[in-house]
């Protein structure tokens, strides 16, 4: 038995060394700087079935058609998200846990481009890997980005608001539930033709339409989110609200890396709410 | 029939591996039949689940509770199983890591490397590596590059298995689909180690005092021990762990070592026969009267019966005569012993047959006990003819052997050749490593 165990150990070390050796010898392909092709939402939506399945994760588009068979869950778990924004499902496999770094490296193989509108916001998987590795730096970077935005744009606010020309009042919009039952909602108050306050959240309602839960209250969710991204909904929602107040227009609000799917909902709902204010 | 190779306790041990495997079976089947990569991944996960189960099992098996070991066919059998289970776990853990990496290698080097060496923040994988590294560290010496192991050093090094187990659990719990089963098995495993290493020295041991040290021949003593408190309850042929606290000893003070009892359960004093075989057993030859020792036990199931209706043949040599001395002394005190016994005492020459006189006395008094002396220097190695001459029905008896390994090997081959079924032969060699 000792000899057998020893032999296995030597075989194990040999194969791992072979793997490491080969890894160093083969030039890496993951370092390409190009963002890849820009893919529109319309094009994405066409690939919404198992025979051609594209997904958006953190602003990047992945063609995972070849991998559906190999994924270790029933097929429908994957194919339900074809042609859709799937960032949330990536960071929460359904049991509250994110996909592993190993899975992230696999995902990189299927990268085919960047979603239109995410040319700068979307980070490549390699960047995400480094971000995950050094969350503190990443968090600090995000904080800088937000404060930078605020400082830079504060001066412009006064001139901008004058041009806004919204009707005074409060405006509300709420989306249909997504596949997990989450609805986005936004409330915008306008005083003297200026956006003075904004509230954004994502909530769940029961079958009768009664309110059940909201994400801004869910600290566990925030923790899970932070574990895989450099940001959670706690500061992301606030960030979008503040940016909208400061800039006065949704066109000037930038997506925060790691919170792009919320950004999309926010953008859509703000536009919807403000159409009534024109 | 089945009882001979499958003990009641074995079923418990098997269940502890089967339950976790059954739990993940559905998800394994799901992925294993898809693609070659799924097969590797499924295999790797299965190896991981069995590997961890066995690792926790090995820890549980080290609890060494008196009497409980008989459910598992005695402590020596449990130790050898522990060894198998441990090595098997070690090999499966390597298969686990290898398989996970190679299941994605068709997708390129990058994924295969990231599976094994993810960013440090993905710590559960690095906990797995830590567990494996610790296993290599404490199993390494058993590969015997540096000759035979020093038992005490080995025991201390083997304590690394405790942090290895904790690291393996830290690796699995955050990733497992059914963490509850690992919490349960992990608690049992860690509980067993805590009992063995922390609690048993104060709670599991009995206080005794050395009252007599009888030098039987150069290098062999029989020590008589008087209980200071409650005495242990034992059966003939069992053994105990003895810890001496005589500061004048040159070696082994406060260290526990296993020794076979030579007294009968009804005797006033507990007696152990000790031969000078190593540093500690050499030092203990000069243990002082009145000094304190601690006893933990009893263990073993030496006179386990597979055929309760059969007569018995005992073959003892060297210090291996000890369990038979215990058995014979036990019979001497009985009105009507359960079986007819014939003991062959194998010794080099009359001077090394140090228990012969007492055994002869018992043979005279007790009609169900016969004794034959076999002297290697005069008669050579034991032969079938010699057995036939002194004990004509030896092939029909249930046979118990204890002695040095060459003697056991010779006798086993001889008896098997004569048509004695393996199930009727019991033997014990104290060689734990």
In total, the number of domains of chain B comes to 3
| % residues in beta strands of chain A | 15-25%
In N-to-C order, the SSE pattern of chain A is HEHEEEHEHHEHHEEEEHHH
- Count the DSSP helices of chain B: 14
Largest sheet of chain A: 6 strands, mixed
CATH topology of the largest domain in chain A: Sufe protein. Chain: A
Helical content class of chain A: 40-55%
In terms of per-residue confidence, which ranges of chain A show pLDDT below 50 for 5 or more consecutive residues? 121-141, 153-163
Based on CA atoms alone, the radius of gyration of chain A comes out at 22 Å
Uncertain residue segments of chain B:
none
Mean pLDDT of chain A: 79
Can you tell me the number of structural domains of chain A? 2
Briefly say what this structure is.
Chain A is 46% helix and 19% strand. Chain A is α+β, with helices and mostly antiparallel strands and 278 residues long. Chain A folds into two domains: 29-130, Roll (Flavocytochrome B2, Chain A, domain 1); 134-275, Alpha-Beta Complex (Sufe protein. Chain: A), CATH 3.90.1010.20.
